Here is the input.
Amino acid sequence: MRYIVHINLIVFSGSGSLLWHSHNFQTVHRYIFVLQVLSLEAEASLEEIAHSYRELAKTWHPDHNPSKDAEAMFMKIHEAYEVLLRRHKPHRFK
Here is the structure.
């Protein structure tokens, strides 16, 4: 038997504006994970996200890092960046 836990998570910035809202525990966990990968806070701006991504990408890019884990870490960083970019894109309603 598989259980899916639904919760209400609402994230506000220090100024009180709504940053993010989810009802799904798995989505919340993924969001927290991508923030940790990029070493960011929940209220990070688009500029902070891009800056963190560029710095980490320079460090972990397989062409510049001979480590065995470099490619896997670079892919995690890139995926985290993509997730956060989708969160910051304006939603278009039809």
Summary: The two ends are 38 Å apart (CA to CA). Residues 3-9 have pLDDT under 50 and may be disordered. The chain is about 50% helix and 15% strand.
